[in-house]
Write a structure and sequence with these properties.
Strand 1 and strand 2 form a beta hairpin. The chain has one domain (3-72). It is built from three helices and two strands. The protein has a two-stranded antiparallel sheet with strand order 1-2. With 74 residues, it is α+β, with helices and mostly antiparallel strands. The chain is globular, with a radius of gyration of 12 Å. The chain starts with a helix and ends in a 16-residue tail after the last helix. The protein has helices at residues 3-13, 31-41, 46-58, and strands at residues 17-22, 25-30. Helix content is 47%, strand content 16%.
Amino acid sequence: MTTARAAGLAARVGVEGVAVVDDEGITTLETQDVMAHGCSAGDITHTDAYKLLRQMRDAGRHLSIPRDSTGLLR
């Protein structure tokens, strides 16, 4: 699964994490990590990703988010 697809999946369904299967096993990422990967890849800005995470939390999703949008820059 590509980073962009994983970020899109997380945004659409509001999952708390996305499992990515690779040759080594299964890696589990929190939604904020998926968004950070999307920011690094240029798929979404860190400010838009942070807004989306806040909207997801405000909609009742239980997820951890960074203190501010710069926490998504990695």
